[in-house]
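Much of our argument rests on the idea that a fold can be written as discrete symbols. The amino acid sequence and the backbone structure tokens for this protein are reproduced below:

___
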Amino acid sequence: MPTSSNDMSSSLFNPLTLSSGLKTTTKCVIPPFLYGTAWKKERTTGLVVQALHSGFKGIDTAAQPRHYREDLVGDGLRQALGKGAIGREDLYIQSKFTSINGQDPDNLPYDPASSIPEQIRTSITSSLKNLRWQDNEKGIEQNSYLDCLVLHSPLPTIAQTLEAWTTLESYVPHQIHNLGISNVQLPLLIALYDAVKIKPAVVQNRFYAATHFDVPLRKFCREKGIVYQSFWTLTGNPGLLKSEPVNILAREAAVEKQVALYCLVLGLENVVVLNGTTNEERMKGDIQGLEKVRSWIESDGKEWDLLLSEFKALIGERS
């Protein structure tokens, strides 16, 4: 039976529960926005603090010094937690293992000559240290954990990818609660899903026209309970920002066009969005915008259904 707009509005933009296929008492939820920390360089600490104070409850980073300062993400995390307004249990923290092909050869978080399992273990040890939620290095193994560890991209062969995944599985569910994969195409995702014990809980991909907006892949994710994490949502879609559904939603709900696009993408179901704005007012406005759109849907659900249907048609997805 189709979900009514009134039913959807009560749950729209709420955190989603992750599933790894394991029976565990650890429940992990992921918020609609993850603050993306790539390319922030030395500004990372301050921006993470601003994002958390503005209402973001999720952070995405990576053990990839080429594009991320994971150590400064940790500094910002501890500064924000130290003020006492939020606790570690209120947050979703995600990092990534990046293989050699995605690293700066002059600035690696592991020995490139070591085996894949050893590279992963060294990288995860570094991530757990960087992202510890208490500002002491004693007992890092006990007091540090990640809500999700994402394989930044498949390795050159399926055998190597499965070797990496098996190594990651050994950390679940204690130091790492869930696993995911990024920059993946549907055939490999299916092969991985079918082969592994701990299923991917998230897939993080570019959402843009060059991949046909991942329509078949996102369908598979919905069927398997995998959360799709959209990145490049604004940068990769200048045409969608100018589209009629986005402009109408922005006008009717009194939000910025960027927020309208985010909300329509979130409306695709089982989707969250990476948001990497460096503007503090935009951070607050994006969080508040979700609530404004939710309130508008409650008062005009039929119009939302129509706009979402038109948006799906634009990206080649059938309702």
Q: What stands out?
A: The beta strands are 16-17, 29-30, 33-36, 58-60, 92-97, 148-151, 179-182, 202-206, 227-231, 271-275. The CA atoms of residues 93 and 280 lie 20 Å apart. The two ends are 13 Å apart (CA to CA). Residues 280-299 form the longest helix (20 residues).
